[in-house]
Amino acid sequence: MIMINVALDAMGMAVILTLLMGALLSGQKRERKGRFFVALLILTMVQQLSDILNWLFEGKPELSSALFWVNFLIFICGPITALVFFHYTLSLIAAEPNRYRKGSRIAMAFCVLWIGLNVLNVFNNMFYGVNAAGSYYRGPVYILEHVYHFVVILVSTVLALGCRKLPPRQKLALLTYALLPFAALLFQVWFYGLSSLTYCALTLSMQLIYITVHLSNVAQLERQGKELSLTRQAYQQTLYDAETDDLTGLLKRKVFVQKVEKYLAGQRDNGCAMWMIDIDRFKSVNDELGHAVGDEVLAAVAHKLVMLLPEDALVARYGGDEFCAFLPQVTLEELYHTLQSALTALYFPCGNGSREVMVSVSLGAAYAPAEKSIACLELFRQADEALYTSKKKGRNQYSLKEL
What we know:
The protein is an alpha+beta fold. Helices cover 66% and strands 12% of the residues. It has helices spanning 2-25, 32-57, 64-92, 101-124, 142-161, 168-190, 196-243, 253-265, 282-289, 291-308, 332-345, 376-392, and strands at 128-130, 136-138, 251-252, 272-279, 314-319, 322-327, 348-350, 357-359, 361-368, 398-402. The strands form three sheets. Strands 3-5-6-4-9-10 form a six-stranded mixed β-sheet, sandwiched between helices. The chain has a two-stranded antiparallel ribbon with strand order 1-2. Strand 1 and strand 2 form a beta hairpin. Helix 1 (2-25) packs parallel to helix 7 (196-243). The radius of gyration is 39 Å and the shape is rod-shaped. The termini are far apart.
């Protein structure tokens, strides 16, 4: 009989521990009802552990003191469990604690009373005690504590059953918690020695509550998380569309200017450069080969610019066949090297067959050293003048103005 009780309690503890891990890992402690449910699980597990120790210490006089304190722990947990369940039920029906303040105070007062009586029991054994043979005995007063426990849980369940918002499956789970353990308790009266049945009934009730209340809650949180993720993606897509050019995927001019102004307003520890890029004879490409080839040329130039320039560079479509780029951290020597590489990279064939065209660009750049304070508009103007110089000199080349 002892090993049967120990085995049943141990299995119950394993289930409760699993439910507890599930509740904690799913983040349910962030919610009020989740915190109360975790407290119920912990209290149930403590009682099951106490019952195991109770059976292992029973009939061993040398462990009589330990047996007494194990029973003390069981009877302390009882009224606390009832009180926690009362507030857990209020959290499920979304009731304000103030609305049931009077009932809560009564339940708490009785809880304090039973805890106080358990403390007094240490001195007079009016609840329970351990005899010389190492066996515990219980006085008639302890039955009153079970009555209190049952009444509080039953009242809590009646409140839940009267709540229209609570789904029927959740009401059924709470009703199971209210009735099943006490049915098992009554069964012990006729078949003494199977105290683990009460805790098995508690474990089963906890599983039903977890499945009907908290798993559905996790599923709801997952749905809300997915909806939030979709909303965030939609927002990011809208932001991307507002900031980038549809054809090339580069920044729009307005956004580009804002980012450059923000950078130039701060403290710089290196030189920076502004580029203006114009595709040579682009109008004739559109006129002779069509806008589809023209769009292909624009997209190809944009892609090559992004691949060519450093990761921290800003690249934008300035308008039509013009592009601009801003290099925030560059030395004069690096700038010369990058401009030469750009001319080479941006001289390439685009299209195919009779619709192929050789693409080239004209580049104008303005360089501002670290000690030079300059506004974005002035940097643009200087780069644009350098671009005009490149076109005037015959295109497919670059010009650089040092400020």
